[in-house]
Design goal:
This protein is mainly beta. Helices cover 4% and strands 52% of the residues. It has 5 helices and 45 strands.
Length: 823
């Protein structure tokens, strides 16, 4: 390797401008563009467009990749207004995303495998990757994504190509790069349900012959809301105060939920002094404030039909019942502001992607630093009353990573890929909780609090990976790879203050301190075999494994009701192994794409978080599970009807626990319903109280057996320099359990949602007017949930009352009009 290449690799982390002194040398060293070894692919008028993906860090057709992947083009993202991870899920079969208030803030599941929302310490089984950088934290759900080049949803374990491992799949998002000529775009839109206005602007073009710039900004403000808040004022008396407390009034929170105020910005510099070298620097910032962190928490099922706390009607109704913290209390409550419920998220990221082609070896180096901070005030029983539970939280995350990768492309049957990843992370966490019991002025800042938590985790990862690519014969390729991961996590937890009411259960100070030094090592192999009997037909089979490290529950509770409180904070790594295979075909002279995929995986130590109402503590448990299924997708673009595209998919998935013999009981589960085991897993004695159940063989939560999509897109000239377009898309899901703990009454009924888009614009794309309707059936469905706090009784007895069920509801019917102007 030339010496100057080493210097370039060292400089890559500092961006394109740092490389300027090397430009002349590189231009001299860079080899001339190689002549094409084969004629270019034939151009097909109309018919199917080629889907290009980077699922294996190579630019290749999706039909050549031995991975089940759903690719969403930049054009489709705009036409369907897909601007968040939740909206990606709404357009992707077998992917569900629930937006939660606290913990990780996300319950993301793919093929029924996902991670609980209630633990901030759990990394997601479905990883999000942005511009090649791994984001494993659920708070990425708060990010707004716009001005994108494309999205790829890769299903099943992903070992080699996306930073750290992902055990269930990857959502890979690529933002747009600078254009070779100057382009300017503005877009203004208004959504009628939330009364939300949005303004977006993009400027892109060359600064010099080898340096391009792209600037994209977006601002959003909403004057309305998706959910109605129906509540009444409550008198808060703090009945357990040592001296009589004044009475304060808690007023209903805003019905303008979430009422987002958002500003996003991204600047991209792309330095390309020769065809051999590209260096791209991206810097982004995101600010998002909502009126309520739990704006979508719906009491969708209650045993009496009414909420147990305040008597409101339960159902799938886009309605919440939440109140603000009294303003007098908020003045002396950390992060409470004026007492209005809220969620405020800020993030910043810098990513540098350096790519250098040394004729037979391509060197890639991706450097990233990202930071986010999230604060909220929630009515954390999610159904306010005169004894409301309010809490605030301030959590921060920061990560630095660098991945260096080399890929050979010799004219030989065997090529190699190898690389190394280094990542350093830190999470800081603080939480303050009031059960409306105590007003103790002598406690100063803790005057109204019943418990506080402070925690951090420092992590460090070194991971090496390699793959051999063997073209056995022109039609057959065998790939063998492995990733080794060494990870350490050092964590600390303490409860700085506990009120007199809870001191018998939650110790404070040194008596509540937990420290953990965790070390994880893992080897994850990956093998795939592909065979192309015909040019446009590929058959593939893969053996895949995956790994997600264990960790520490920073938001846990040190409870003396637990036999070993410190053990409640740590949890084991999650692993997976199994097989996947199928056939990908492009038929009928490139008019029909038909793909079939089969899979079967076994998960060990699937990480599941649970709130134990008996111990008054969070626990991250692990269970074994299996998932197996079949996926069929098609796309048809007939040349006889230019501009028409028909597409759809059908998926069958069976996800269940294979070994969970000592699972927690859900709130209000009776002995007859299976809550008949002790905490050790033995049957309870006559007259005893159950604490555990056996969930082996039972279905996982958020795992419908059947999902599917069906859609059509049509675009045609209409004369006078105009073109019109129409897209209709529907997504179907069979019924499923929302709860991961066997609550049969948590079953969400089968549903179908309908999205429609209409657009009219200039044939040269100079301008466009569009109307986009989503969930036009106005179907309320649940994407995750919890037992409502302070509800249910008699768990493990013969006369139990089920807890109310709170669900993370999807968005209602929305209709948006937009105007786009290009310059």
């Amino acid at each position: 390797m030339p010496r100057k290449a080493h210097r370039l690799m060292a400089a890559a982390a500092f961006g394109p401008l740092a490389l300027a002194p090397f430009t002349a040398a590189l231009a001299a060293e860079a080899p001339p563009p190689a002549a094409a070894d084969a004629p270019p692919a034939a151009e097909h008028e109309s018919g199917l467009a080629e889907i290009i993906v980077t699922a294996r860090k190579r630019v290749e057709s999706a039909q050549s990749v031995p991975v089940a992947v759903t690719a969403i083009s930049a054009q489709t993202l705009v036409q369907r207004d897909i601007t968040s991870i939740e909206k990606i899920a709404a357009a992707t079969p077998s992917l569900t995303v629930g937006h939660a208030s606290n913990g990780s803030a996300a319950q993301i599941a793919l093929r029924g495998i996902g991670s609980s929302s209630t633990s901030i310490g759990i990394e997601q089984s479905v990883a999000t990757v942005v511009d090649g950088v791994y984001y494993g934290q659920g708070r990425v759900l708060e990010e707004g994504f716009f001005d994108l080049a494309g999205v790829e949803v890769l299903k099943g374990p992903q070992v080699l190509f996306f930073g750290k491992n992902a055990t269930a799949g990857v959502i890979s998002i690529k933002t747009a790069d600078p254009t070779p000529t100057w382009q300017f775009r503005t877009k203004a839109s208004y959504e009628f349900k939330a009364k939300q206005a949005q303004l977006e602007g993009v400027a892109s073009g060359p600064l010099t012959d080898d340096l391009g710039l792209r600037v994209a900004v977006r601002g959003t403000k909403a004057w309305g809301g998706y959910y109605d808040n129906v509540s009444q004022p409550f008198a808060i008396t703090y009945p357990l105060s040592p001296t009589p407390s004044p009475t304060y009034t808690s007023y209903p929170t805003s019905s303008n939920q979430p009422g987002n105020r958002e500003f996003l910005g991204r600047v991209t510099l792309k330095y390309e002094p020769s065809s051999a070298l590209t260096d791209t620097l991206k810097a982004s910032f995101d600010y998002n404030k909502a009126n309520n962190s739990s704006y979508n928490y719906v009491a969708y099922n209650c045993p009496t039909g009414k909420t147990q706390i305040n008597g409101y009607t339960c159902g799938y109704n886009f309605v919440t019942h939440q109140n603000n913290l009294p303003s007098e209390v908020a003045k002396n409550f950390p992060y409470a502001g004026d007492g209005s419920l809220y969620n405020r998220y800020k993030s910043a990221a810098v990513t540098n992607n350096f790519n250098y082609d040394l004729d037979k070896v391509t060197i890639t180096n991706v450097t990233n630093y990202n930071w986010n901070n999230n604060q909220w005030l929630c009515a954390c029983e999610f159904n306010s009353s005169a004894s409301s539970v309010w809490a605030t939280e301030n959590s921060s995350w920061q990560a630095f990573s660098n991945e260096l990768r080399a890929l050979t492309h010799y004219d030989s049957p065997v090529n190699l890929m190898a690389g190394v990843l280094y990542q350093k992370t830190r999470r800081d966490f603080a939480q303050f909780v009031s059960y409306s019991y105590n007003n103790i002025p002598s406690q100063g800042i803790n005057q109204y609090q019943d418990g506080t938590k402070s925690s951090y985790t420092r992590g460090q990862t070194i991971s090496g990976f390699a793959q051999a690519i063997w073209k056995i014969v022109p039609q057959v390729e065998f790939d063998a790879g492995v990733r080794y991961t060494h990870e350490t996590k050092d964590s600390f937890f303490i409860q700085p203050y506990t009120s007199p009411t809870f001191i018998g259960v939650w110790p404070m100070g040194a008596g509540s301190q937990v420290t953990a030094h965790q070390v994880f090592n893992n080897w994850s192999p990956d093998f795939s075999l592909t065979y192309k009997p015909l040019q446009d037909v590929m058959v593939y089979a893969s053996y895949k494994t995956g790994y997600k490290s264990g960790g520490f529950s920073n938001g846990g509770i040190y409870s003396l009701a637990s036999a070993n409180p410190a053990a409640d904070f740590v949890f084991n790594p999650e692993t997976v192994q199994g097989f996947e295979g199928g056939i990908k075909s492009t038929l009928a002279d490139h008019q029909l794409r038909l793909n079939l995929n089969l899979y079967s995986y076994k998960y060990k130590n699937l990480q599941t978080d649970y709130f134990d109402s008996v111990k008054v503590a969070f626990q991250t448990l692990t269970a074994d599970a299996t998932t197996k299924g079949v996926e069929l997708e098609f796309e048809f673009a007939p040349r006889a009807v230019s501009g028409l595209n028909l597409h759809g998919s059908m998926n069958y998935n069976d996800a269940k626990y294979s070994n969970f013999p000592v699972a927690p009981c859900f709130g209000g589960q009776s002995i007859a319903e299976g809550c008949n085991l002790t905490t050790a897993g033995t049957p309870i004695a006559a007259g005893g109280t159950g604490a555990r159940q056996n969930l082996t063989g039972q279905p996982l939560g958020m795992a419908p057996h059947w999902t599917g999509t069906l859609g059509a897109n049509y675009e045609t000239p209409v004369g006078n320099g105009l073109k019109a377009g129409l897209n209709i898309d529907t997504r179907y899901s069979a019924s499923y359990l929302v709860s991961g703990f066997g609550e049969q009454f948590s079953r969400n009924p089968a549903y179908a949602v309908l999205d429609v888009g209409l657009r009219l614009g200039a044939t040269d794309d100079n301008w466009q007017v569009a109307i986009i309707g989503k969930n036009l059936t106005n179907k309320q469905y649940i994407n995750g949930g919890v037992d409502a706090p302070l509800t249910g009784s008699g768990t493990g007895t013969a006369n139990a009352l089920h807890a109310d069920l709170m669900g993370f509801g999807a968005l209602p019917r929305t209709v948006q009009i937009s105007l786009t102007k290009n310059f």
